[in-house]
Amino acid sequence: MLEGTTAEIRERKALRVNPAKTCQPIGAMYAALGIHKCMPHSHGSQGCCAYHRSHLTRHHKEPIVATTSSFTEGASVFGGLANLKTAFSNIFSIYNPDIVAVHTTCLSEVIGDDIPTIIKKSTVEGIIPEGKIAIHANTPSFVGSHVTGFANQCEAFVKYLSESTGETKNVINLFPGWVEPADMRELKRLATLVGVEFIMTPDTSDVLDSAMDGKYEMYPEGGTTIDDLKAMGDSFLTLAMGPLASTTAATTLEKKCQVPSQVLELPIGVAATDAYLNALRLAGDTSVPRELERERGRLIDMISDMSQYLHKKKVAIFGDPDNLTSMVSFLVEIGMEPAIVVSGTRGKKWEAKIREICKPVNENVEVRSFSDIHYLHQWVKANPVDLLMGNTYGKFVAKSENLPFVRFGFPILDRVGHRAFPTLGYAGGLRIVEKITDAFLDKRDREDADENIELVL
Ligand code: SF4
């Protein structure tokens, strides 16, 4: 399909070909799904909402429920006030959520709809019933990406709901960043093992990977509760994972409720997981249990056993900034050489950070933010690599260049493992090493002459 791609690179300023990102409301929708009994609401036309829902449904293999203001020509010209009021009325009477999280789209942002005022009016007029809540986040998609949309929605939870009673509790806030439900579950497991009491926001585990029990629940049992969102203002510390996805909410909480925060990289690999556990241990004045030391040891053992297949292998990788920072660090940790690193989200500081991480193994790493998969393909053609990592859209590049391919990031539309197995923590590290090694060995099994095929690893 992409065999016609050339190695000759022409700089493009106003065109993205196969972008390495999606639009802001998808992130806001994902974050809202991590709140218990929350209905994500898309204030714009139906097409946006349908696209965002279907993208999340295809990634999580779960039906994603969200509502829309269903703009037509009238709302596009005169504004969406009437549509949003009607939507609130319908949503609360038909679907009965505890909270509606409104996010905007390109269209409602261009019109300039004043959502806080519409929410106030709807509250005064009783359209939003007593005891129910509506909040909003601005997520225009002509700036940012799905990760900034996620960050904006997380900030909205804090802005609207967190409050300080003046009585600090022995609880920490965990902002997990944009990671899979399985990763959120893993972060919680690690915090529980270290013996720390926490509130995780948002928490999509047991919402987007809920158990099949034969009954359909519009609001599964998982998700951060509204009481917990409020109580975040009384915690003594926030650990915010993933600088792009979580810093804004942590800083806003710090300003609003004086809860100090610490920003960490996503705990992918050995050093980043050590840093997460260390932060938990210090916060809780506890110690890391033997069980986790053994897990760490098993990961180190796997890395050393497989190093003959990983050492100095060149990797091209694309995805979201936070996830890339941690994954690239882990690739360096296991002896591989990141050669091309591409993100669709803007970030010059992030580029510098990646160059610094790669310096010990590859000073000439090609790093680009606000770039696309077509550029990545051209760089791969000009400077061949051994492995490609990225979301599902990378498979066309992998096929064209006959490269081993490991799926990583969002969206993964054509595999299911990301639903069940974490990438974070020592357990996640084991899985990443397994996937990378298997990708190399599968290629060899396919291509080696019969007399060279190894039966034993
Ligand atoms: S880019 Fe804008 S118009 Fe397109 S789907 Fe996203 S929000 Fe809607």
UniProtKB/TrEMBL annotation:
Membership in a protein family: Belongs to the NifD/NifK/NifE/NifN family.
Name of this chain's protein: Nitrogenase component 1
Record-annotated membrane-spanning stretches: none
InterPro entries for this protein: ChlB/BchB/BchZ (IPR050152), Nase/OxRdtase_comp1 (IPR000510), Nase_comp1_CS (IPR000318)
Record-annotated Nitrogenase/oxidoreductase component domain positions: 23-440
Keywords: Nitrogen fixation
First and last residue of the signal peptide: none
Superkingdom classification of source: Bacteria
